[in-house]
Fold these 2 entries.
Entry 1:
Amino acid sequence: MSQTADATSIDRPGLTGQPMIVLDKVNKWYGAMHVLRDVSLTVAEKERVVVCGPSGSGKSTMIRCVNRLETHQTGRIVVDGTELTDDVRALETIRREVGMVFQSFNLFPHLTILQNLTLAPIWVRRMPKAEAEELAMSYLRRVKIPEQANKYPGQLSGGQQQRVAIARALCMRPRIMLFDEPTSALDPEMIKEVLDVMIELAESGMTMVCVTHEMGFARQVADRVVFMDQGEIVESGPPAELFENPRTDRLRLFLSQILRGH
Amino acid sequence: MASTRGLAQTRPIDWARANLFNSWWSTAVTLLLAWGIIRALWGFIGWAFVHAVYSVPHAADGAPDTAPCRAAQEVGACWAIVPEKYRFILFAFYPYDQQWRPALCVVLFVALYAVSANRRFWRRELGLIWIATLGVVALLMWGGVLGLPYVPQYQWGGLPLTLILATLGLAVAFPLAVLVALGRRSTAMPAVRLLCIVYVELIRGAPLIAWLFMATVLFPLFMPAGVDFDKLLAAQVAIILFAAAYLAEVVRAGLQALPKGQSEAADALGLRYWQKTRLIILPQALRLVIPPLVNTFIGFFKDTSLVLIVGIFDLLKAGTTAVADPPWQGFGNEVYLLLAVIYFAFCFAMSRYSQGLERELDRSRRH
C-alpha cells in the first residue's frame, strides 16, 4: 500500500484500477497567491476518495478544478479520458459525466423540487419530460423524500435540501460525484441523514471525491484519504493508516485540532 | 405612536386616540393638518363641482360661446371644454371621421396589457399575440388597405400615439436591456463588454430631450439627400435606445444580486450558457428587480410626453394645443387635470400590477 500522492493505492474488490480522474502537476494562482502547488492525484473507477485539510488548504479549489468551475494554469487534468482545456465541447462532455454537490446546496429556489431534478435531464440529456419525472421520482425515493416533490426548496430543511441536491446530480446519471463540504452548512442533527445517503451511494459503486471533515464517514467508506495543506497534497493513504500513523507534523496537528473540535 | 400597529382589531376611536391625539402637540398637529386638508378639499370641491360650468351654448354656426365659463373662471371649473375638445385631445389631427380606428387601437392596447399581465398566458404564444396585435394596430393606424383610407404618420396623435411610443418603446427596449446587461457582465467577450459599457454610459450621459433632438433634427442632416427619415420613427428609436440603457442597469443589478452558486450549479449540471441564462439566471434576477423595473417603466411612460418638443402630437401636446384654441384659452387647468387622470390611470395600474405580481411570486416560493 503506497502512500505517495498520485498512486491508486487500494485493491478493494470491485475496483478496476482504470483511472477516472487524473491530476498531473496542477498549479493555480489567484493573483500572487499560489493556491494549488503541483497537485497530482489519480482517482480510479469506483474509488472513494476523501480530501481533508485545514480551511484555505486548496481542497475545494482542487475539486472545483475537476469540472472546471475553477480553471487551472499549469499541469493537466484528465477526466474519464477527456482532457480539460478551453474546448467547450470537451467541457460539456465532462460536466455531463461529473455530478457536484455544494456546501450551500445551490438548489434553484424558483423551481419545485421535481423541476430542480428534471431540468438537466430534459435540457442537457434531451430526455422526454415524463421519463425525466419518473427518473427524478426514483431518485427522490432513494434519498427518502418523494413526498416533497412539489414543494419549493425554501420549504425544506437543510438536510432535505442537500439530499435533493444529491438526487439532482444523480439524475444526470454521472460516472463521478464530487462533494464540496456537503455537510458543513448543516445543523448537527441533519448531518447524519445526508451522510447516510452518501454512504449508500458509495456502496452502490459510484466514483466519489468528497471534501469533508467528517472523519467517521472517511473511516467508513473512503478507500483513500488525501490530506492537503497550503495548496499541496501532504499525505495520502487508507483512512486507518493515515489517521493512526500520521507521518507529518502538519497532519498530526490537523488531526488533533479536528478531534478536539468533535 | 406605532404601539397599536400590530393589533388586528382596534376600534377606529382607539386607533385615533393612540395615533393622532396621544399628546398635546400630536393633537395640535392633527388639528392643524385636518384644517388644512378640509380647506383645500373644500376649495377644490367648490371649484370642480359646485361652481363648475358643464356646458356652454353654441351659436348657429356651431361656434361655442364660452362667456359662461369666463364669468365663472375665478371660482369654477369649465368642464364644458371636455365634451368640446376630448376628440382632439385623444386623437389630435387624425381625420375626424376615421377616429374609430385609433380608438380601437387604444382598446387593443389595453386588452394586450390585460392579457400580458395574466401569468397563465406567459408562454411562447404571447410573443405571437404581441406581434399580431401590433400588426393590427399598424394596419388600423396607417390604413391604405381593406378600404381604409391611408393616414400618414404626421396626422397621428393623442393617446394612441402615446401608447404606441410607450408600448413599442418598452417592448423593444426591455429585451435589448437584458442583452446589454448580460453583455456588460460578460467575461468571455471583452469587446462586447466594452461596447455595452460605452453604450450605457454614453446614452445616460445626456438627457432624453437631447437625444430626441439629435434623432429628429440632427441625424437627418447627415443622411444623403432624398432619404426621408420619419420623425416619429426617429423619436421612437431614440426612446428605445434611451430606455434600454436605463433598464439595462436595473437588470444588471438583479444579475449582480444573484448568488454565484446558482450559476455554478447550472454549470455543474452541464447547462449551456443560454439555457442557464434563460432557465436559472433571468427568472430569478428579474424577479428581484420588479420594483425598480416597474419604476423605470412608469417613468418612461410619462417621459414619452417629451416628444412634444420635437413637434409630435402625443397626448400632452394634443392637450396643450386644445387649450390654444382662442375661445378656450385660459382653461388649461381643466385639460391638464384630465390629462393627469389619464396618465395616472395607466401608471397606477402598472404600479398595482407590480405589487400583485410580487406577492404572487412570493407566495409560489413561500420562503
Entry 2:
Amino acid sequence: MTWTSLRVTAPGRREAASAALFGAGAQGVHEDGTALVTHFPPEVDVAAVIRQVHLAIPDAVCETSPTEPIDWSIHWRDKLSAHTLGRLTIAPTWLAEGHDPATTIVIDPGMAFGTGDHPTTRGATRLLQDIMHPGLVVADLGAGSAVLSIAAAKLGASRVFAIEYDGDAIGNAEDNVRRNDVEGIVHVFEGDATILLPLVAPVDVVVANIISSVLVELLPAMHGALRPGGRAILSGILLEEREAMLDAIAADGWRLEREDVEDVWWSITIAKA
Amino acid sequence: MAKKVSGFVKLQIPGGRANPAPPVGTALGPQGINIMMFCKEFNARTQDRDGLILPVEITIYSDKSFTFILKTPPAAILIMKELGLEKGSGQPNRVKVGSITAEQVRKIAEVKMPDLNCDSIESAMSMVAGAARSMGVEVKG
C-alpha cells in the first residue's frame, strides 16, 4: 500500500504550515531544508489536506509524490555490516550467524554506542591483539558498551574488569556481555576508575578508550595497578595531541611501545619505563 | 571522544507517539540508526507531554549512534492549543479566527523562552504576539 508524501513550502510561514498539517491529521513532520514533509496512508484524502493547508496559507506550495511502503522498523538494518578487525569480527545479532562465536563480538547498535565501529575502538582492538595471550587479567577503563572488554575476553583474558562511570551505560554493557556469553570472564563495575582500578589491581593489561585529558589523569592509577611487564593501551587521543601525550607519559614514567593511527586518531601501547 | 557526524535530521512528532512509520522511518531509516530505540527513547522522554507537537533535532554519527535534543512546541501550535483553534486564518489581516490576552501570550512566551533568542520575557512575548497576528489571532492588551 503506497503512501503519499506531501511537501509544503511556505516561506516565512513555516510554523503556520506545520500547525495546518497537524490540524489536517499529519502524524509527524520532517523539516527538510525550507520545506515541511509529511506522509499519509492510502485511506487519507490528500487533496482535502492540501485544501486545508491553503485555507491557512493560500500561497503555500504543495507537492505530492508516492512513498514506497518500506517497513523501517526492520530495514534500518540494511545499512549495517559486519566488520573484521584482525582476528576478531564485530557484527550485529542478525549478521553474526555464520561467524565463529569464539572470535565474533556481537554488538547491536544503540543510541549511545552505535556499532562499535569507531576508529578509536578499532585502534585499541588492533593493539590489544598484539599483546593479548591466554590467562591475562585486564581492566577496561571507560568501558562504555564493553566492546573492548569482550574483545579481551575473546582474545583469551581470564578475567576482565569493565569499569564505567556513566550509570546509563551499565545496562548496555551488561547486555552485551551476556549476548557474547562472556559473563564468567567480564565483570562490569559502575564507578570512578581512579577509585575502582586500585581495588581490582594487580592486572596485566589496562585498556582505556577515553578523551585524552582523562587518560592523563588516570596515568598514575594505571601505573600503580599494572603487574611488572604489564602494559596499558590508550585510545581516544587525537593525532594533534600526540606530542602533549608523549610528554605526559614520559613524565609519569612510561615508555611508548607501539603506535596506531587511523584517520585523526592516535592509539598507543605503553609500558612502565 | 568526539565522533564524526554523518547526518542531522529535524522532525516534529507528537510527544509519546513516535513510531517507525513515516516520517520517522523515512527520515531516519536511510541513516541506518536503530529506529525502534529512537522511538522508545523519544516516547520515554516525552510521555509527560503526550500528543503535544514537539520539534526534535537528531544528530547521527558515523558509527550509527545518535543523540537528540527536544525543543519547545512551535508557537503556532501552542497558540492554537491555548485558544482551542483547529487552524489559523488564510487571510490574517482581514479574517480573524480568535483573540489572545497578554496573560496568555506571557504563558506561551514562558514555555518558548528556552528556544527563543531573547534576553527578556517581554521580547519573547513580542515574538509570540507576532506569531499570533500572522495566523489571524488578535492580540488584546
